[in-house]
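[job 0412] stage=fold_complex status=start
inputs:
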Amino acid sequence: MARAREKIESPAPGAGARLPPRACGIVASPYEATASFVAGCAFGPEAIAAELEAAARTALRPGFAQVDGWTWVEAHHRSVVVPDVMRRDVGKWTRELLGAGRLPILVGGEHTVTAGALAAFDDASSLTVVQFDAHADLRQAYEGTPWNHACAMRRALDRGHPLLQVGIRSAVREEIDEVYGRGADGSRGLLVRRGPPPARLLTRSGLREGGLDDALRGVGERIYVTIDLDVLDPGCAPGVGTPEPDGLSFWELLDALERVLAGRTLAGADVVELCPARDDGRTARLAARLAAWLGTAASAVER
Amino acid sequence: MTDCFLTAENPEDAAHAWAVVLPVPFDRCAAKAPGARLAPAAVIAASQQVETHDLEAGCDPTVRGLFTAPPPELDYVTEDAALEPIGGAVEAHVGAGRFALLLGGESAVLAGSARGLARLGGCGVVRLEGVLGCEDVRHGLRAVPRTATRRAAELLPVRSSGWRLAAEGARAFAGAKDLAGPDARRLAARPGATLATADEVVAGLPQDVWLAIDLGVLDPSVLPMPGNLEPGGLAYADLTALLAAVFASRRVLGAELTGLCVPAGDVLPAFVAARLGLRVLALAHRQRYPAGADG
Ligand SMILES: [Mn+2]
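[job 0412] stage=fold_complex status=done
writing structure:
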């Protein structure tokens, strides 16, 4: 896997042929400044890179396009822990990819990196962020900074992005009160905020009980998908910094992604919070599969 | 680092709390592997990472005051001396109307909490454990996980469910005394399976119950820890659905969460235990304060 390529135009080694018209590009952001439980997600992109080529070469299941012409850009060095620098660099490379007609797929790094990719999109109100996560990530600030990974989706709302949160099973009261209104009750499975910007939170139980279609009602045509790997069950994705029990299975996640993408356009995506220190290799492989799937299958999903 | 479960600090005293957390590092003769004495501290440490608004229960059980008591002095010279402080603490707090969450320790702590509950006039015990717990004596000891159901049953009506290990004699005894609820196979959700209902888990028990949850009831894929190797345990969602159903049909006076064996270097088991503790407290909170959940 080529790293730190200087120009988006360069095809990855081995790709050989011309880039497919809707090829994707990977922006790696080994950014870790606020992980508070288990550190190590700065090494996530490296682990994903090691798995990505295999994942890209082999179809996940029949009918899905294989990936040619991967471009891998390391947006900044691992030593960067200043959020402004990370956002500037991730934003810059994401914008480059968009300009070259590529679908940007960001791999983290902590969830804060999403803010960098979103900075590349000017029309926030027409780009819905669809978040798969165990945690709501809606805090105004945490541990002294608004750029904590526990604030990632609050920052997306700040930019004006409509938000759909899926699979959430961890939150604090203040963030729910502030975003969804005082006393908002998740025990019914779905929280709704009228906005602007509008937001919806589908709890883990709400998803299990078939609430996704209801939650998707009214979600816009253009979407940005952000996948925090801790949305998955620690049994299939142990390599995350904040593992939470009762997560999704891999197929449950892919099924949900397909439903989200059906009839919509994927404008960008990210896969974040891989923590190789807690991994035995399977979470890195899974993250690579997801990145490859988002980069290819997204365009193959029935419209 | 705080010594308080889920919170940064205690209220002034237990009287200012609706619920009390009792760490009980009881570790005498575990069914699986030793290490339960380290569990309360590990669970409390992990709980600092738990976000305390329980979305499914719709409340934050820390808001009305949660008091974490210091661990009782356990004297292992005799079984009585080790169990009595546990019973005493449960009796004091439940007797004062507080919800009690006991953090074990191995599941034999039930032999202690049952004493306190019996002195308060009694209640039923809903036990969820990987082992049925109906043996009489093991290694010459009367209060160990494999005898805990039987010890409690000497004092209170008990039903033990979710088990996937039971000695033949224990099964016969449980059958004769009607102590065995549905086993793990009948409680674990899977396609096409006919599942036992929560009614079967609480059948025959009075309206007031104590909930004795041993983490060994969970599958090793959910709770990878030394000694939890037996296949066929419950999924996390199986267990939480069962807990919700128990709370829907009975008044729960308190609960114990036992059987965590802290493995070196993995944060997950203690974190799962802390999360379950939050869920139990949140369900209890919703039961006591049904409207305006945590205001
Ligand atoms: Mn997140």
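[job 0412] summary: The CA atoms of residues 135 and 170 of chain A lie 5 Å apart.
[job 0412] exit 0
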